[in-house]
């Protein structure tokens, strides 16, 4: 509730003040920078309406190039299991749902943890506690999503029981992996000196996409004998 705070030297002599407006400007700039990093953009020096298209391009293209290259992991996984897809083409229809759900789950966990780190509510020593909490959340979310998906697959998509089982088991496992990855990467990045906001949804989504595909085709191969 202070409008200003004094700044003193080592002998407690007044050398300046920090006003509420000064502090608010810094908080706003830092929050904007974190939001841009979490959206896979480099921090901008100017407000959006004062930025030129070239400036915006420069801020966005580095991460887009990096994520495009890293997304080739999913292509490698699909290529590796293309025989499975050829044997049972209906498996392809559920890939977007699994990848999107995994990415969303990882983004939820990372956003929560990054916010906790920024408010000093979470430290590196809390890593195991955070993981254990997210694992329990993942079990609840995974079971709920798998049950809803199982009903949809049988009632509306009219797939076989085996295919529905493959999709739902993969969905639950993907949610678990996504939430563990989403809560772990920001804490580890802070420990090694990186900004946790960098380890946000775009980067985590790319990792989770590859994991979900590996799980999907591994479960399909085991259950369906592809």
């Amino acid at each position: 509730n202070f409008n200003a705070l004094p700044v003193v030297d080592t002998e407690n002599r007044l050398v300046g003040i920090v006003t509420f407006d000064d502090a608010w400007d810094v908080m706003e700039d830092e929050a904007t920078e974190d939001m841009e990093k979490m959206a896979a953009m480099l921090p901008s020096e100017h407000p959006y309406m004062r930025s030129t298209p070239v400036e915006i391009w420069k801020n966005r293209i580095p991460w887009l190039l990096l994520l495009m290259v890293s997304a080739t992991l999913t292509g490698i996984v699909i290529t590796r299991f293309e025989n499975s897809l050829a044997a049972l083409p209906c498996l392809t229809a559920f890939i977007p749902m699994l990848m999107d759900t995994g990415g969303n789950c990882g983004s939820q966990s990372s956003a929560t943890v990054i916010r906790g780190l920024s408010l000093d509510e979470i430290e590196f020593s809390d890593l195991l506690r955070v993981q254990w909490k997210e694992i329990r959340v993942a079990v609840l979310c995974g079971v709920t999503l798998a049950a809803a998906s199982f009903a949809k697959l049988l009632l509306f998509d009219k797939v076989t029981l085996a295919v529905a089982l493959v999709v739902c088991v993969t969905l639950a496992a993907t949610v678990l992996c996504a939430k563990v990855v989403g809560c772990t990467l920001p804490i580890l990045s802070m420990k090694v000196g990186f900004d946790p906001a960098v380890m946000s949804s775009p980067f985590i989504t790319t990792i989770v996409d590859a994991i979900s595909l590996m799980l999907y085709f591994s479960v399909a191969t085991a259950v369906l004998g592809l």
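The first helix runs from residue 20 to 38. The radius of gyration is 23 Å.
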